[in-house]
Amino acid sequence: MSTTAAVTGQSLGSLSGQTVVVIGASSGIGLETARQARTAGAELILTGRDRDRLDHAGHEVAALSTATLDLGDPPALERFFTGLPAQFDHVLVTGGGPSYSPIADLDFEVALRVLDEHLLGSLRIARASSARIRPGGSLTLITGTYARRPGVGLSIAAIAAAAVPAIAANVAVELAPMRTNAIAAGFVDTPLSARILRDELEHRREQLRATLPIRRVVGAADVAALAIHLMTNTAVTGATFDVDGGQQLIP
Q1: Does the residue 2 lie in any domain?
Q2: Nearest to 91 by CA among 231, 190, 225, 222
Q3: What is the pTM of this model?
Q4: Which of 42, 58, 104, 215 has CA 20 to 30 A from 2's CA?
Q5: 88 near 128, Cβ under 8 Å?
Q6: pLDDT digits over 35-60, tens only?
Q7: Digit-coded pLDDT (tens) for 91-124
């Protein structure tokens, strides 16, 4: 019997004897969650787009297996889940990040691809996972907080951020007993952020250190710690949790 099912006998924070699937594990939040899950005793199955980075991540956490996967490819996603063990315990879904563009310059093909990956991709993963996740297990979706405050270039990110919590809540009801939650992150200091901001990265870090109530920048480890908590706390489902260091509290 999985330790997930034996809720009363398992200490909060332990993933001993459980299998965690991390979608988007080659760097950033996904990789850090894999590290923390491994420390908590989990066995790991990892996916990513970049084969070299994925191989490095898989070696680091001694993953059971790794697979290159694009969430925008439904047939490949179906094949991946068909090839997984008959049962597993948790799935974490991270993505390649939203698209940032003013509406006047919006590439609708790119926008459609991003929204398909983040929104319909989440539903595809939920449906593929629901019959195979053991009782007490979970699906966790990562999104952002951009829907809370409008800004130039944020329309597609805002749509995704507003929709993912609704998806999590509906999946929690329709596909129970699989628990489903979302994490809405503000700025997180990851390689993806570095690629987006480039020369502006250090300025953004300094700005956040000076203005955030926590007086530091949110890192991948902060988001990963919450992801692990949501895997192990079997009373939580249908909820969205913000991890932004108080960024939304700043005018």
Answers
A1: no
A2: 231
A3: 0.91
A4: 58
A5: no
A6: 999 999 999 999 999 999 999 999 99
A7: 999 976 777 899 999 999 999 999 999 999 999 9
Q: Is residue 211 part of a domain?
A: yes
DSSP string, 206-224: HHHHHHSTTSS--BHHHHH
Please give the structure tokens belonging to residue 49: 């787009």
AA identity, residue 35? R
Q: What is the CATH number of the domain that holds 70?
A: 3.40.50.720
What does each C-alpha distance from 7 to 13, 77, 79, 235 come to in angstroms? Answer: 12, 30, 31, 10
Provide the domain count of the chain. Answer: 1
Pairing of β 65-68 and β 133-144: unpaired
DSSP symbol at 47: E
Please return the burial class of 76, using the count of CB atoms within 10 Å of its CB with bins 0-12, 13-18 and 19+: middle
- Within-domain flag for 52: yes
